[in-house]
Design a protein that fits this description.
With 118 residues, this protein is mostly beta strands. It has no helices and eleven strands. The protein has strands at residues 3-7, 11-13, 18-25, 35-41, 48-53, 59-61, 69-74, 79-84, 93-100, 106-108, 112-117. Strands 2, 4, 5, 6, 9, 10 and 11 form a seven-stranded mixed β-sheet that branches. The protein has a four-stranded antiparallel β-sheet with strand order 1-3-8-7, with no helix packed on it. The protein is globular. The N and C termini lie far apart (40 Å).
Length: 118
């Protein structure tokens, strides 16, 4: 069984920074062997990929966050992070952590709310 626990969401002013964390509670090597990602969903919008990181550390980002957000992982702590800077009101959303276990399935966290005020 895999549990993903996000934390770090908060209310912040535009231009500010936040760091989100996602701790993976699971036995074995499922965390270190798999792709991890952050998604977000704003009210009335579809969930979208924000950033991802492979087991080997390669990263990918949505165009809207490139240069502002950084994803990283600590395999010793079974944790993935999302460092967010230069935040904008349009970054307001619920942010979800995702572990891709197979090409067709994975695990989601419960989400953490990020609100950016103008």
């Amino acid at each position: 069984q895999v549990q993903l626990v996000e934390s770090g969401g908060d209310l912040v002013q535009a231009g500010g920074s936040l760091r989100l964390s996602c701790a993976c509670v699971a036995s074995g090597t499922i965390f270190r062997n798999n792709y991890m990602a952050w998604y977000r969903q704003a009210p009335g919008k579809q969930r979208e990929l924000v950033a991802g990181i492979t087991a080997g550390g390669s990263t990918n980002y949505a165009d809207s966050v490139k240069g502002r957000f950084t994803i990283s992982r600590d395999n010793a702590k079974n944790t993935v992070y999302l460092q967010m800077s230069s935040l904008k009101p349009e970054d307001t959303a619920t942010y979800y952590c995702y572990l891709r276990a197979t090409a067709w399935s994975g695990y989601w966290g419960q989400g953490t709310q990020v609100t950016v005020s103008s």
